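Hey L., structure's done. Input below.
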Amino acid sequence: MSYKSLLVTTTLCLSLLAGCATMSVGSDYDRAASFAPLRTFTIMQREHKDVQNPLIPTRAENAIREELMRKGYQQATDPSTADFSVDFTIGSKERTDVSAYPDPYVGSGWGWGRRGWWGGGYWGNDLDVRQYREGTLSIDVFDARTHRPVWHGWAKKELTRSDIENSEAPIRKAVAAILAKFPPGSGGGT
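Output:
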């Protein structure tokens, strides 16, 4: 392998890893629930009021439907016959991170006196304030017969301008990352 192709491959791998590291994903589930009999689903229909772009909930719903079907589940033609119901919440909010860390400064406060050395270094504070928009997608699975929640998955990511202007790909990526953990024990972990 030539140096140039090695450099390109390394850069591509590091870029992919950096992209993966920016999204945090997690899940939780009811340990008493049985996921083996789940075959058919329905997506709960409701209004998503706090979303500024009305295309966002539609894109999320489509991505969830397609990912569940890719995993082998079937959408029930009659919602009352589904084994499980899926709901989701999607949105974003402005976040502010404030980090304080000492800024070393040694002034002229050192000296020698009758009692030995006196004075000391001064440690001031340096603040780093950063504002950003964080996007969150939560997916909830309910037992369709008991209406009890059995699984919850979420993803959070700092949104870039590109994510906001071209939302379909980041939504699909978040849905895939979340549903990789469904059902529990499918190799995706918790």
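The longest helix spans residues 3-21. The chain is about 25% helix and 40% strand.

-- N.
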